[in-house]
């Protein structure tokens, strides 16, 4: 199986559980089997391991998740390591130590399992936004918060909602893991998942997780993700359920530098706006439960070069930093 998967240019992932049983009731990986299972996965040519935490105690998880990381590294095979550890500890400090997580795991599940429904997507988004001051500084190259899989291409999301999940997961620097049947996926869902600019933004080498920066009474929210080369991504998201909404703002209101000029590309339509100044007012039309997503690249830098960087101190968020 591994050879067949790799021959098609794909990677092979496998599911395990740090406990006596998996969540589905199959044999798990107890502490005495960690080294053996890691070596077996490497011999099979596995490229990614997701290790769940059903049927294990907090003490066993505190010992077993780091031990599996050491065992995987000892095999000499690069294996992406996905941990469910924080999800079993409430997802937040003091029970969850994100410094240790970043040293042990490549990605980790913080919160509830996603379901094939818009309510589930919103619940996860709400939790990540409410706790972004804790979660955002923990993410970076090689260690990511995981809001769970993309359910685009299944049955629970409309076309607009599918576009929204893709954009919001991208701006949150989430691992883009599909959960759909590729044999029956619709052309529209495939187009969303294969959006090249979207994937480029998601894979930006700075690896900074975006944040919600605006929450309006009109049920419009704005998310910002700083990118390399002084670029950035903006997502204008509507929680409305009635009609398309015209949202008017400016980059100045979104705390961009005063004297910068940008080229803007709509990530979905491809439309380009050239020469957008920070103080210029603009409007976007956002469909109900939909998004407008922009990629912004500076045509002219401000008088002092700048970039938006991740702040390490809690609750600081993003701010322009002069270089």
TrEMBL record:
Domain Alpha galactosidase A C-terminal: 207-290
Gene behind the chain: Naga
EC number: 3.2.1.-
BP GO terms, sorted: glycoside catabolic process; oligosaccharide metabolic process
Quaternary state and interactors: Homodimer.
Recorded GO MF terms: alpha-galactosidase activity
Name of the featured protein: Alpha-galactosidase
Organism: Chunga burmeisteri
Similarity comment: family membership: Belongs to the glycosyl hydrolase 27 family.
Gene Ontology cellular component annotations, sorted alphabetically: cytoplasm
Gene3D superfamilies per record: Aldolase class I, Golgi alpha-mannosidase II
Coiled-coil ranges per UniProt: none
UniProt KW keywords: Disulfide bond, Glycoprotein, Glycosidase, Hydrolase
Signal peptide from the UniProt entry: none
């Amino acid at each position: 199986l591994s050879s067949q998967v790799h021959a098609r240019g794909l990677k092979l992932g496998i599911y395990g559980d740090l406990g006596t049983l998996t969540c589905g009731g199959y044999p798990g990986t107890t502490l005495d089997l960690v080294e053996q299972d890691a070596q077996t996965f490497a011999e099979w040519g596995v490229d990614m391991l997701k290790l769940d935490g059903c049927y294990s105690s907090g003490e066993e998880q505190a010992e077993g998740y780091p031990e599996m990381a050491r065992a995987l590294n000892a095999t000499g095979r690069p294996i992406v390591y996905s941990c469910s550890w924080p999800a079993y500890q409430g997802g937040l400090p003091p029970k969850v130590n994100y410094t240790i997580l970043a040293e042990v795991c490549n990605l980790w599940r913080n919160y509830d399992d996603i379901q094939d429904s818009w309510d589930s997507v919103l619940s996860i988004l709400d939790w990540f936004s409410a706790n972004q001051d804790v979660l955002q500084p923990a993410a970076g190259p090689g260690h990511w918060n995981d809001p769970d899989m993309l359910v685009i291409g299944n049955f629970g999301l409309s076309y607009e909602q599918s576009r929204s999940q893709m954009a919001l997961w991208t701006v949150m620097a989430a691992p883009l893991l599909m959960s759909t049947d590729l044999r029956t996926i619709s052309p529209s869902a495939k187009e969303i998942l294969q959006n090249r600019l979207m994937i480029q933004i998601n894979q930006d080498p700075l690896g900074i997780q975006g944040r919600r920066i605006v929450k309006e009474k009109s049920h419009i929210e704005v998310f910002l993700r700083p990118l390399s080369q002084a670029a950035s991504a903006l997502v204008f998201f509507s929680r409305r359920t009635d009609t398309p909404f015209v949202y008017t703002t400016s980059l100045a209101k979104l705390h961009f530098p005063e004297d910068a000029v940008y080229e803007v590309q709509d990530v979905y339509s491809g439309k380009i706006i050239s020469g957008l100044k920070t103080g210029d007012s603009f409007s976007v039309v956002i469909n109900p439960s939909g998004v407008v997503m922009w990629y912004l690249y500076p045509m002219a830098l401000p008088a002092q070069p700048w970039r938006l960087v991740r702040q390490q101190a809690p609750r600081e968020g993003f701010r322009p930093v002069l270089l």
